[in-house]
Amino acid sequence: PRTAGWILGLLGVGFAALVGACWELFEFSIDAIFGTNAQRSGLPDTMGDVAVNIMGASYGALAAQRRLWRGTRLPLSGLLVEFCARNEIIYGAWSGRRFAPRIRKPRP
Asked: What is the predicted pLDDT for the residue at 74?
């Protein structure tokens, strides 16, 4: 059975938020260890990065859902569509329809 699209979108946004949080921890660690100032203003910089990260991930999830369900594209979603078409292991033999036909295994 296929996983519901909204669950995949939510997992994608969550994964992007996790990667963004790890990056912010990395920035903080570098500042603390080497005495640099990568974060400049601290909290406003971090909150801005997290907000932009979640907005970008949400746009990517929405673009993927629209393409898979309706066959329409959002602006700047061409790279995402190309990624879906090239990764058959993740997205199946996607032919642009809502769901690709399942491959039947021959009976013994």
From this structure: 75
The 3-state DSSP class for residue 28 equals helix
- Helices (H), ranges, the chain: 5-34, 43-70, 78-86, 88-91
Six-digit token string for 67: 């393409």
Q: What is the DSSP letter of 38?
A: T
CA distance 10 to 58: 8
d(CA 47, CA 24): 10
Give the separation between CA 18 and CA 84, rounded to whole angstroms.
Answer: 22
88: buried, middle or exposed (CB in 10 Å: 19+, 13-18, 0-12)? exposed
pLDDT tens for residues 65-107?
877 777 777 777 777 767 777 877 776 655 555 444 455 566 6
Answer whether 51's CB lies under 8 Å from 6's CB.
Answer: no
Cα separations (Å) of 25 from 34, 92, 104? 14, 35, 47
